[in-house]
């Protein structure tokens, strides 16, 4: 048998509404979305709420719970005290359709405005090749479930409707960052575009977006700040300015993954040893520090070479029998597993810390 708990839920539509009080049964292990469903089954059959997966993966059940943007299906009732009234309101930044359902088309409009992935014209889709390090680098941003919690919390548009036209928001800054670090993307003006068209300059790095992201994407530290740094490099660094005069702007960085990775021709417009590669660790103090602790995400990765074939186009037998690693490891090639705990960059909490 559950306990009775107090809820205040915003009811209304685009013409207005107010908070209404409900007393609902709450059982052990339930989340806020369970309570919304119970209300729909009992006191409020017409309560509108968007949801799909109930597993934190579809990004539909975004709402504001006690003023904090959260996923209803991932917010446990056990995080509130029994005498606490839980207030549930729709996302504040977007127009209300009804009750907890908002019109998030702002985000789809911004998605449409973001230039799409631009693969090299001379490589067919089946021939695209990326190294694992480059896949891992943008993988963080690909985890986005488009819940738009980061979009609703960002103060640039939360209280300033007038900024919406000029500001795409954190979700689309990480999309731009992801494409900017994609080794096969041939658009070289992602950061200039972010600055000029997406409103990157409006962001003053409050990190609220990072704080609410249910996928724990480091939106500011890994997406926005690196983009801002490179914009500043391009605009204000005199050496980069000079380089941009010699190498025409837009042609400076990359187009060849091999060039960036080998570090043989780091272009003047590129900061931190190459926009499109993790390589070149030996000159990077952070990489040196990581190498000392056993994990070096920036280590120089040998470029793969095709094995030699004989004049009939066949692999020599030794290619099949030779025992060698399939791919280089960011931990180094000479480590044994399991790694000592201090060398891990993620550790499970202690059993005692569960609560
Ligand atoms: S860090 Fe920037 S994008 Fe994120 S919430 Fe703050 S102002 Fe908005
Ligand atoms: S970046 Fe995070 S908070 Fe923003 S839409 Fe994606 S998953 Fe949601
Ligand atoms: S219902 Fe899919 S994220 Fe909550």
From TrEMBL:
PROSITE patterns: 2FE2S_FER_1, 2FE2S_FER_2
Cofactor: [2Fe-2S] cluster; [4Fe-4S] cluster; [3Fe-4S] cluster
Keywords carried by this UniProt record: 2Fe-2S, 4Fe-4S, Iron, Iron-sulfur, Metal-binding, Oxidoreductase
GO terms for MF: 2 iron, 2 sulfur cluster binding; 4 iron, 4 sulfur cluster binding; electron transfer activity; metal ion binding; oxidoreductase activity
Compositional bias ranges of the Polar residues kind: 252-269
Gene Ontology biological process terms in this record: respiratory electron transport chain; tricarboxylic acid cycle
2Fe-2S ferredoxin-type domain residues: 5-92
Region of interest called Disordered, as start-end residue ranges on this chain: 251-294, 325-355
Biological pathway: Carbohydrate metabolism; tricarboxylic acid cycle
Highest taxon of the lineage: Bacteria
Gene Ontology cellular component annotations, sorted alphabetically: plasma membrane
Keyword Lipoprotein appears in the UniProt entry: no
Annotated family: Belongs to the succinate dehydrogenase/fumarate reductase iron-sulfur protein family.
This protein's name: Succinate dehydrogenase / fumarate reductase iron-sulfur subunit
């Amino acid at each position: 048998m559950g306990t009775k708990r107090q809820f205040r839920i915003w009811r209304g539509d685009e013409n207005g509404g107010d908070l209404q009080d409900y007393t609902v049964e709450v059982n052990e292990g339930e989340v806020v979305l369970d309570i919304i469903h119970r209300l729909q089954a009992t006191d409020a059959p017409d309560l509108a709420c968007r949801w799909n997966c109930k597993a934190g993966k579809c990004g539909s059940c975004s709402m504001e719970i006690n003023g904090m943007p959260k996923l209803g299906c991932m917010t446990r009732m056990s995080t509130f005290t029994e005498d606490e009234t839980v207030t549930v309101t729709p996302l504040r930044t977007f127009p209300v359709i009804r009750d907890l359902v908002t019109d998030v088309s702002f985000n789809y409009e911004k998605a449409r405005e973001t230039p799409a992935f631009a693969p090299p014209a001379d490589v067919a889709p089946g021939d695209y090749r990326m190294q694992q390090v480059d896949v891992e680098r943008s993988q963080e941003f690909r985890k986005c479930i488009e819940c738009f919690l980061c979009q609703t919390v960002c103060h640039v548009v939360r209280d300033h409707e007038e900024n919406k036209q000029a500001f795409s928001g954190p979700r689309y800054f990480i999309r731009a960052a992801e494409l900017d670090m994609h080794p096969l993307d041939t658009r070289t003006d992602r950061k200039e575009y972010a600055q000029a068209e997406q409103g990157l300059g409006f962001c003053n790095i409050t990190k609220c977006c990072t704080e609410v992201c249910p996928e724990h994407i480091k939106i500011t530290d890994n997406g926005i700040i690196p983009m801002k740094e490179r914009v500043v490099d391009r605009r204000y660094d005199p050496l980069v300015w000079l380089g941009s005069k010699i190498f025409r702007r837009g042609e400076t960085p990359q187009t060849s993954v091999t060039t960036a990775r080998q570090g043989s021709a780091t272009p003047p417009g590129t900061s931190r040893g190459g926009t499109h590669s993790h390589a070149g660790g030996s000159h990077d103090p952070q990489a040196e520090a990581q190498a000392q602790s056993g994990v070096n995400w920036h280590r120089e990765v040998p470029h793969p070479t095709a094995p030699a074939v004989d004049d009939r186009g066949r692999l020599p037998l030794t290619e099949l029998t030779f025992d060698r690693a399939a791919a280089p490891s960011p931990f180094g090639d000479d480590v044994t597993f399991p790694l000592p705990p201090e060398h891990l960059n993620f550790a499970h909490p202690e059993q005692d810390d569960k609560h």
